[in-house]
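stuck on this:

***
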Amino acid sequence: MSTFIKEIHIRWADLDPNFHVRHSAYYDFGAQHRVEILEQLGMSMRIMQEQHFGPILFREECVFRKEMRMNQKVFISTKVGKIKEDGSRWTLIHEFKNDKDELLATITVDGAWMDTKLRKIANPTPQIAVDVMNLIPKSDNFAQL
């Protein structure tokens, strides 16, 4: 698979007083897409609960290029920008594009896997997390950490 792409649907609640998508909605779309990708690759919330781990973000940044508006076709894609060999730390990149393939925004998140019992970085990284992260397509400027 070369990338994970999904059309997103902008709701009235996603708009700000200027009638374009509010900044925090972009982050919500990114978070939802990440969860859907993990589920699609076999790492469900249930598995993470059973194995006592989950994703944690250290940084989340959005660069806005063009307005996103209601009734506009918008697609989100997700790729791995960076990852440690053991899968413990990673960077994911979400791109929002319109139906003309114009870049609307880019979200970059830096994260890791947390042991939800110890409330610390999971060590070692659960094998399913390593396997799943290696299935997500790499960005054009991918770097091994």
User: Anything to note?
Assistant: The chain has a mean pLDDT of 95. Residues 1 and 137 are 7 Å apart (CA to CA). Strands lie at 4-8, 53-64, 74-83, 89-98, 103-115, 120-121, 138-144.
